[in-house]
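Preliminary data (for renewal application), adenosine-5'-diphosphate complex.
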Amino acid sequence: MSAVRKANLPLGEGIAQIGACGIFLFQILRAIPRSLRHLRETVRQVYFVGAMSLVIIMTCGLFIGMVLGLQLYHTLSIFGGTAALGTVVALSLYRELGPVVTALLFAGRAGTSITAEIGLMRATDQLDAMEMMAVDPMAYVVAPRFLAGIIVMPLLACVFNALGILGAHLVGVSWLGLDNGTFWSNMTSNVDVWDDILNGVWKSTAFGAVITLIATYQGYTTPPTSEGVAYATTRTVVFSSIATLVLDFIMTAFLM
Amino acid sequence: MSKPRDLQPAIPTDALISIRGLRTRLGDKLIFDGVDLDIPRGKITAIMGPSGTGKTTLLRHITGQLGPDAGEVMVDGQNIARIGREALFDLRERIGYLFQNSALLTDFSVFENVAFPLRQHLKLPEELIRNIVLTKLQAVGLRGAAELMPAELSGGMMRRVALARAIVRDPMLIIYDEPFVGLDPIALNQILKLIRTLNQTLGITSILVAHELAAVSRIADQIYLLAAGKIAAHGTPDDLARGETPWTKQFFSGEADGPVPFHYPAPDYATQLGLVGAKP
Amino acid sequence: MAQRQSFQIGTGLFILLGFAALGYLATQTSSLANYREGASYALKARFTNIGQLKLRAPVKVAGVRVGSVSGIQLEADKLDALVTLSLDKRFDKIPDDSAAAVFTSGLLGDQYVAIQPGGSPDMFKNGDEVVLTQSSMQLEELIGKYLVGGDAGKGGDKAAAKPEAKPDAKPDATPPNDKK
Ligand SMILES: Nc1ncnc2c1ncn2[C@@H]1O[C@H](COP(=O)(O)OP(=O)(O)O)[C@@H](O)[C@H]1O
Ligand SMILES: [Mg+2]
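Predicted structure:
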């Protein structure tokens, strides 16, 4: 019997999961008006989900910027185009790497902790206890985290991008001796606020929504055991990474 | 089978909760197979039975966390499976529920845990919240622990904080799911007194799930014995202590052999060990 | 209480930092940085071919940015490209016989409009047209020129047939090769 269920797993189970996730999203959206009563909870979650991810985001942003600086300087120098270093770094960060890498880091840092936290609340009956105290866990626990994810992701991506630019500047200008003026003027004449920067902002907002949706869903439906919580946490990372990349492709293909 | 009906007293007219013909299946297992039960107002009703028979599940039916497959659960005149979410939440605001494993909110201190139902539903001045919470914590003997986090408490202390939280809004009904587990004799005695005081002075209806027969007998007005998906026995503590049916006899004397199987259903022991039949 | 306060402060700081980063990206690393110039005045220039010139491409005098391309249109009757240049008010001392040319930064870089100052005592004013222009140097044309030989190449070059093609722009006509 278990063999039959395993055989069904990839397709049937996958579609069922997506469906359940969609219903869950609908429930979150319905709970959002009620969650505004617990605004303080949303503020708290912005702190947990956002401020706590800041260090890893800033570190990774700086280093990715530095690596991009090195790699692209090398590549561009083949064509004698090192003047475009600022532009190339900025565009690849704003349009792709910023949102996507931030999302992957966010899934690992904040997504897992959301899943583990809600899963543990499920396993220790805290969600049931809230229901029994006539407090809707969808409005008190899930919706604030979802909102926090949507607020936080674009901000984190911007911080990531800013640090990335600084990293590339550090390598390109201070280290490899590119002209400071060239670096910036080339960038400023090619980067567009709407097409490039805000495009990345929309992307990262969407990623934030998808990751927190998956993370809260996995936590909320965890089997109430420590094993269940562990599996759910892993699934959050796997599913939200895949979802991020798929969504990234879709958004890149259709929105640009 | 035995005839539990014989023991049933006349149906109380002022039942706060009445359950008729409850049937529930969870997974592959039939948990309830036609349960009838009445909880009179202002009384303490104990529900006892072997672990895994569905006592907690029964409580979840009463609070509407779980819907029955058949039968009806009436609470305060309303069919709990039919009323909408709003009405259900209104009802729950008047029910205190002590979870079997406390279920304290790990993010909040003891004080904030007890204050949680107040803050969520009432706009009270901070001063008043403080007074109410400290009063309730005093009642369970943990006023001094107000600023501790749940992780810093022992199981018994958590149970008492959860109790303080369950009674903080002075509900009409309090449901205690195994409140005595993990309590030392002193705390047990105090909690027992508290349950009785709440019942006698405020007239709060109480449902008590517990295994401690001696403790239960001291405060319960009536006991339901739940076994194998049915009400196996019902009556006052004295009635049941006389142990007229095989169910009660076995349960209260704690024997492995009797109508309540101690063993989970399994193939024959000797066969499984290969002592019989396997080798000729 | 104190705990709650620190959450709010932390959250506030985080949001401020995020928006500061967004503001930094938007105003310092994008074309918005070039709109800081404030007041500007517009010049028009006609080119037979602008190559890869794009909106917001820089306009430079002596290699220093003085403004940007703010409009590109096709003139329906002459089939010329009409380019609007938006120059910073600070640079209003550009002689009105100066020439404009579409150049490429580096071999494969982006294109920009270079203004080569003339010697007239009168200066450009808002709305003036830059009469002397030189079109973008197309790589294909260059190759064609060298292959076929100077004269034949000249004959095939439409730009050369126009009166606007200035001989003194010629030394600058091969910037891509000037790699030192
Ligand atoms: N969600 C569920 N799905 C399947 N079986 C369940 C579920 N919840 C409880 N059960 C089963 O129901 C039975 C009764 O559980 P419970 O009410 O917790 O017993 P207890 O009387 O000890 O409180 C147990 O055998 C348990 O395995
Ligand atoms: Mg139980």
